[in-house]
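Supplementary notes for students who missed Thursday's class. We covered one full example, reproduced here. Read the sequence, then the structure, then the short commentary at the end.
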Amino acid sequence: MGIFGRKRRTEGGSAGRHAAPEADDTFEDAAYEDEDGSELSDVSDGPYDVADFSDDGIPRIDLGSVKVPVPDGSQVQVEMDPEAGGVRAVHVVTEQGQITVSAYAAPRSGGLWREVSSELADQLRGDGAKVTIGRGVWGLEISAIIGDVALRFVGVDRPRWMLRGVIAGPQSEAAAAVEVLREIVRRTIVDRGDAPMPVRTPLTITLPEAVAEHIAAQQQQG
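Structure (token representation):
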């Protein structure tokens, strides 16, 4: 299920899988000073709202609220919530690290990612991580180091939803991991639905029927 052979150039140059780090990879907390949090992302080539999306032929795993591309050679892992009995998260595991993409209800005017990223940075620091903040393709990005693990968070504001992506992997793969994360976020489709929801409500993840049946069979055997 390849997505990395169909690239368009981005602000930082080639979007290739092993592209060199962009200039924004030097992170400073001062990035917040230039971000008022009130504007929606103006990047027009993704991620997409399902209502505005035209089929591009890229295979994706349909998780209901999000449809996520899966690169060649990667694996999909499902994390269940034993207490709620549902799906907690779905991860795409690549050579560069584990990627998780999540969507949330948001204001029409945007600005949710600024709030969430500030809280997330504080939480990471409280957990002992070395945290730096800078600007990327869609605005604020968070980089964190915890032990030997490198984390990168990106967020995209759109009318009525916010998409957050994170990759966790070895520090040796950090430069390449950023590009892999951005490419998956860029090609993701969000289906928020029309129902009113409180801001920050996670959009429901549903599994493809074949995947759900496989997990159910494993649980019965276990």
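Commentary. The longest helix spans residues 112-126. The helical segments are 112-126, 174-186, 209-221. If anything here is unclear, bring it to office hours.
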